[in-house]
Write a structure and sequence with these properties.
- The chain is 0% helix and 54% strand.
- By secondary structure, the chain is mainly beta.
- The strands form two sheets. The protein has a four-stranded antiparallel β-sheet with strand order 1-2-3-4, with no helix packed on it. It has a three-stranded antiparallel β-sheet with strand order 5-6-7, with no helix packed on it.
- β1 (2-4) and β2 form a beta hairpin.
- The chain is globular and about 30 Å long.
- It starts with a strand and ends with a strand.
Amino acid sequence: PRTFSPCGTFLLSGSADGRVFFWDWKTSRCYRRLKCHDKVAIGVTWHPVMASKVATCSWDCTIKLWD
């Protein structure tokens, strides 16, 4: 899964090991990575109004909101 930030600067992606990556899509540089889940991060999305918040979900049956 992947999604762009509301400002269009960052790309957000999930991985098979439960991590979420924040990419600067213009430079292809990984800006930040977080270990969010114990299993595959199957969904990632930016909050539609509060751009500093990100929601993730996983095969570990959790949904998390990150600030």
